[in-house]
Amino acid sequence: MCVPPEANSNNLYIHLECAEKAGIKVIIQDSRMWTDPEAVAAEFKSHPALGMYYLWDEPNTTNFKHLAEVRDAIRKEDPTHLGWINLLPNYATPDQLVAESFTQYLDRYVEEVKPQFLSYDFYGIVQEAGATMLRKGFFDNLEEVSKKARKQAIPFWAFVLATPFGPHPTPAEGELRFQVFASLAYGARGIQYFTYWTPENAEGVSSYTAFKDGPISADGTKTPSLDLIGKVNSEVHSLAPALVKLTLESVKHFETIDEELEAFSPGYGIDSLRGSTVITSFFSDRDANWWVLVVNRSFELDGEVTLTLQKPINSVYEVNKQKGNLEEVKMQAEGRKQAFSVKLSPGDGRLFKLSKASDR
């Protein structure tokens, strides 16, 4: 029998059994993990609802040695399930990181822990003086983690703000889409939402960190954010079978005001762009085809961009975000070249295959 979350049961079996009935998996946290990780793995490794082991959220460098030891002990007993560790963002202070910089922090983590994947959080949507904006460093963090993951040949996962707290507002659809599709544009292989159930605020908590109504409010009430996340997440699931087979080659920003970001230049089957400010992420597949994910840089305004093709590209297909199938895109003349236009709702992204032959 499942016990509702408000019962606050510490029996992990109850939570695992509820998860199994719901058809989902759980990342478990057990207080014995730090003292007897082998026992935890031996006890739970065969449960069908086990997803991963929760090891640490936002560690600093002084935790790395022990984290590696715990992870290795679990892996020896249970080589099937991963240990989840989530890193601090690049706006964490040197005192929080216990490192001179985020770069040093990330380098040490990879060297000392040797993770099987990278996970980090950066909550980029903030409100200041009544205006919603993107927190500085959002793309820098994405780019640095993405490059490190590719160099190590491991995937990375990114967090998306779903529960408002402090300066972070309840995300509108465009803001939610932007976080998701910008992460996918940099090659993210996992999208994590903070958080599903709104955490209860401790007595005397500051207004900066106070949590408000997330997808499920603290009293268990469903909020509009839940349906919105479900809508966007279903699109990610439709794109996933194509994305997981692709290799990220380059991320370029068109009409960007950020000088440190790589500006668009011709290549990967695209000769030129005109229109709205977008992210263009170029991927390759095993058959030497180019793919492009086009993401609206604005999470407030609709966008439209026209992409002119290079030879020998002569046909374009889009991955349908509801069905996951490829659908041929109507072409238009752009001078002597072929082109296609992409309309984007705020923060949205669309994935296209650029083909050298008139087939799929």
Describe what this molecule looks like in 3D.
This protein is of the alpha+beta class and 360 residues long. The chain has 8 helices and 18 strands. The strands form 5 sheets. It has a 6-stranded antiparallel sheet. A 4-stranded antiparallel sheet has the order 10-13-17-16, with no helix packed on it. It has a 3-stranded parallel sheet with strand order 1-2-3. A hairpin with a 2-residue loop joins β5 (125-128) and β6. Mean pLDDT is 93; it is low at 4-9.
The Rg value, from CA coordinates, equals 22 Å
Largest sheet: 6 strands, antiparallel
Helix run count:
8
Tell me the β content: 25-35%
Q: Helix fraction?
A: 25-40%
Low-confidence stretches: 4-9
Series of secondary-structure elements, N-terminal to C-terminal = HEHEHEHHEEEHEHEHEEEEEEEEEE
Count of extended strands: 18
Q: Indicate the overall shape.
A: globular
> Strand order within the widest sheet?
9-11-12-18-14-15
Structural class: alpha+beta
Determine the mean pLDDT. Answer: 93
First and last CA, distance: 49 Å
List keywords for this structure.
single chain, 360 residues, alpha+beta, 6-stranded antiparallel beta sheet, 4-stranded antiparallel beta sheet, 8 helices, 18 strands, 28% strand, globular
In short:
27% of the residues lie in helices and 28% in strands.
Topology readout:
Blueprint: H1 12-22, E1 26-28, H2 37-44, E2 50-57, H3 64-77, E3 82-86, H4 94-97, H5 102-113, E4 118-120, E5 125-128, E6 131-134, H6 138-152, E7 156-161, H7 173-185, E8 190-194, H8 224-243, E9 247-254, E10 270-275, E11 278-284, E12 290-296, E13 303-309, E14 315-319, E15 326-328, E16 332-334, E17 337-344, E18 349-355
Parallel strand pairs: 1-2, 2-3, 4-7, 7-8
Antiparallel strand pairs: 5-6, 9-11, 10-13, 11-12, 12-18, 13-17, 14-15, 14-18, 16-17
Helix pairs in contact: 2-3, 3-5, 5-6, 7-8
